[in-house]
Amino acid sequence: xxxxxxxxxxxxxxxxxxxxxxxxxxxxxxxxxxxxxxxxxxxxxxxxxxxxxxxxxxxxxxxxxxxxxxxxxxxxxxxxxxxxxxxxxxxxxxxxxxxxxxxxxxxxxxxxxxxxxxxxxxxxxxxxxxxxxxxxxxxxxxxxxxxxxxxxxxxxxxxxxxxxxxxxxxxxxxxxxxxxxxxxxxxxxxxxxxxxxxxxxxxxxxxxxxxxxxxxxxxxxxxxxxxxxxxxxxxxxxxxxxxxxxxxxxxxxxxxxxxxxxxxxxxxxxxxxxxxxxxxxxxxxxxxxxxxxxxxxxxxxxxxxxxxxxxx
Amino acid sequence: xxxxxxxxxxxxxxxxxxxxxxxxxxxxxxxxxxxxxxxxxxxxxxxxxxxxxxxxxxxxxxxxxxxxxxxxxxxxxxxxxxxxxxxxxxxxxxxxxxxxxxxxxxxxxxxxxxxxxxxxxxxxxxxxxxxxxxxxxxxxxxxxxxxxxxxxxxxxxxxxxxxxxxxxxxxxxxxxxxxxxxxxxxxxxxxxxxxxxxxxxxxxxxxxxxxxxxxxxxxxxxxxxxxxxxxxxxxxxxxxxxxxxxxxxxxxxxxxxxxxxxxxxxxxxxxxxxxxxxxxxxxxxxxxxxxxxxxxxxxxxxxxxxxxxxxx
Amino acid sequence: xxxxxxxxxxxxxxxxxxxxxxxxxxxxxxxxxxxxxxxxxxxxxxxxxxxxxxxxxxxxxxxxxxxxxxxxxxxxxxxxxxxxxxxxxxxxxxxxxxxxxxxxxxxxxxxxxxxxxxxxxxxxxxxxxxxxxxxxxxxxxxxxxxxxxxxxxxxxxxxxxxxxxxxxxxxxxxxxxxxxxxxxxxxxxxxxxxxxxxxxxxxxxxxxxxxxxxxxxxxxxxxxxxxxxxxxxxxxxxxxxxxxxxxxxxxxxxxxxxxxxxxxxxxxxxxxxxxxxxxxxxxxxxxxxxxxxxxxxxxxxxxxxxxxxxxx
Amino acid sequence: xxxxxxxxxxxxxxxxxxxxxxxxxxxxxxxxxxxxxxxxxxxxxxxxxxxxxxxxxxxxxxxxxxxxxxxxxxxxxxxxxxxxxxxxxxxxxxxxxxxxxxxxxxxxxxxxxxxxxxxxxxxxxxxxxxxxxxxxxxxxxxxxxxxxxxxxxxxxxxxxxxxxxxxxxxxxxxxxxxxxxxxxxxxxxxxxxxxxxxxxxxxxxxxxxxxxxxxxxxxxxxxxxxxxxxxxxxxxxxxxxxxxxxxxxxxxxxxxxxxxxxxxxxxxxxxxxxxxxxxxxxxxxxxxxxxxxxxxxxxxxxxxxxxxxxxx
Lengths: 312, 312, 312, 312
What we know:
4 copies of one chain form a homotetramer. By secondary structure, the first copy, chain A, is of the alpha+beta class. Chain A has 2 domains: 7-64 and 202-224 and 238-305, DD-peptidase/beta-lactamase superfamily (Beta-lactamase, 3-Layer(aba) Sandwich), CATH 3.40.710; 67-197, Beta-lactamase, CATH 3.40.710.10. Helices cover 46% and strands 12% of the residues of chain A. Chain A has 14 helices and 10 strands. Chain A has helices spanning 7-20, 32-35, 69-81, 102-106, 117-128, 133-148, 157-166, 168-179, 187-197, 204-210, 212-215, 230-243, 249-255, 292-305, and strands at 26-27, 43-48, 53-57, 63-64, 154-155, 200-202, 260-262, 267-272, 276-281, 284-285. In chain A, the strands form 3 sheets. In chain A, strands 3-2-9-8-7 form a 5-stranded antiparallel β-sheet, with helices on both faces. Chain A is globular and about 55 Å long. Chain B binds chain D through residues 100-102, 104-106, 168-169, 171-176, 178-179, 187, and chain D through 100-102, 104-106, 168-169, 171-176, 178-179, 187.
């Protein structure tokens, strides 16, 4: 009889291997809060279908989830407006950098997918939908508490303020979409909510908890609550695989073989469908803006567990 | 006890549903051989891990596989030069049309992936590698015979001649890459081999046979022959999912949830990892150049069989 | 003995011909103030080296000069910072629409020339240079009074307010340049001054007066005041010829053969070097955004007067 | 009484100044024949309305005129098909490099102007017009003999052969236009003629002779022969000013202020309308691909003679 590989042992091994590596990528420097992150940090948390939690390294330390929040705002927006969302944003990989504005001009202000900055701003605009920024942010935070089953998750206001002060390129994207009628709310409102949800701070453990519904047919297997229908969970996973790592999405699919979404804070949420929800964190980024050790750790995990969606 | 869904019954149902649909897309018209295809045709063949073959509609009728051949030339080239191939071609989705030349200029003649035309021409150039076009074509055809376990597969010379006569846009791509030193062989040689391998004619049954190694860890489960290592099979599947349907790849992942590669002749090869190799054919294309009914049939099949890689 | 053509007679003829034409282009509609302009209007004013003023049609009626103001802000900025201006903006035609953002991404936030919107915003930022918007606007208006020798010229505040309310595309351009460090002042300040100087209202006669220094070696021949050195006047004329009509600049040079700058309000300022300063106005635009009858009238004037810079 | 500046004296001074400069740009290296050019060479020839020839430096030494030939093929093509030429090629500056293919994709295979490579290939295709390459080349050469009044001008076959062997990027442009139906003749024929007319060798004196019709209302003032109507000469001058120096056209207009056309062999033909035809040659190029000393010499000449079209 063949035993299943021991998840906690593999996670521990991987955390050890990552701790020893000297190649750690470059920490993002565009705001001081991110620039101060310690490149020596590495955390990993994996939660399987039975709710067993395996952790390694700095898995309990909160970090700025940044673009990973886009998975949850997409889920929330789809819950609000359903397929009408797709009038404002596409579902194709962009073939360009996360903050490129070129494609917006060629495609009349409609961003290619919900995970590039322009697309996530359009999704945020849908959540606002006439409300005040404070209310929309409250909704987003309550949704995070719900999916992670954890009311301790908060927004780091210092990060949000820094992003607002320096976010000219995102302001360019938002104004450009506004010019094409893609945004309904005042540009400042939409940007304000966007900068704030990107500033949510979570630990690997919290993030892996929050991703469980995507691994398990739309349901949180512990609470039993349905977050989305199973088909929608599959579809969000598909978008994560296609577009979750900006212009490194192909590389992530090729090496890791799981749906995932990265953030410039060094976190990655990855989903092994029907098997596990996984979060890794290491602040150093590779040249496509994705966590360098995070990707390497996920590649090791997928191989050792046999979790690639592309075959045994 | 829950019974597995009956594959042949589902395939028969889908073939019936497709026969009754009036929306059939538009047949490609750029060469007379493709323009003559009957839009009423629909075929489907599914081969599972045990080698059971389920077929529906015109599953035994040969059609021009066109770009689907790129999966096999990629496999062959990786077998020849391994990861050195990636010096000449990337692995990221292109975010633009299959025959776009814009990206080539911005990225110094290196195509984004092996499944856009420029990338497939670069792959073909690698297979040529100093040999005569006739020898390279012989190698490709022998490889098709091997993976499909069928020596009856041939090239349609009339189609190849038509492509050569009208392939100015592909000639532009090839000359452009030659200018950047990405192609090693004479442009005419490389284009000649490219036009010919796109003109291979196969039935759905033959194509599903040829794709089996991608579904089963690199091995043909009937013959027992290993075509590629398991990791390479997974990686080719990853590239198919990311890039297999041009600028409709996101849509295909979102709706079907399987790695797949389409051709302008109306065929699609799709892989359900560890479960089945699937080929569909219907000549009418949607506005991204992929088989309209082919995609719809695959969406139905995946849902009914629960085969999406993104979760149950 | 050959008599010089009689300027007033030719101007009267042209005004008559324009009045009779039924092809009048399309009035700009993006703000109500411009949309209300009467397409039947046509005005022309020509002032020669001796100060003789020839007028036809609605030459005394003020209109929104819009982008024509960019000639004067360029002149003012060059007076302030000299050639340092060219660190922030280029001198090459753009090969794209007046409000395109694509080029900014490919060229790191530096606009191609001072007459596309992005370039004019960068020039405006230079004039601001740490001052309050009100002071910068005062400077610009005083400069207009000086060059036109007319203190009656004012800003149409209603137009400025409309532009501010709807100028999202310009806000995108400004934020984009700010992200690249090309703008020094707060985005709102720079945009505020930009929207206001585009809202200056002038008649053809006033505009032709204001352009005289460009026709006469940098000097206003009536007042005797030197506005710029002769070389700078030539260089501003060169930029007008190359870039003054957005993506219709080639057409204007080909047909009219004079340096000129158009505005979306339907005005064009044209310079016949050493001969005359010319202003025309007709609100209907052609498909490159330039005054339809304005260009035709200038073509007729240049031909009849033999004023093309490209030869007799 | 003010004397006109003495042309020969100024030309001699400029040739001396150029000889002493150490900044000479970089010689083109893409074919050995150009790479062998001596960067120390500098020649200048100016022919005024009275036919007086002023020369300096290596004004009698033949060089490869390269893209300067495009002025003459444009003239010949307009003579053949008149304004129908403009169905195949535009008249706007390109805003990109001379050999860019990006714009062709966005504008459906129609090049922006006759002086970028794609445009000149389209013009050459018009001259071919069903004839054999040899006949078209004969026509072009006879036209050069006619406008230069010199039957000694020949094509350098070694240069033409080198260009053919390495001209993959031009082959890409030609095939791309062929795909859009912009070229009528076989791609090889059109490219063959194009590579050959770019390989015409002329001295500065011969080139200045050949340009005289553009300076003098379409007529060669010595022979009295009319080459084109005066309006067409003005219009060709306009296109030269707008597009004659690739993505350095704005810079040339700004500094020199004359219509001109440069070639990668280091030559520039410049026209002072109604005053003179000018040719300069120095093989070192600046970073926009135009003769470094050639441009500097023309700037000096224009200033000292007061010949700028933009004013005294």
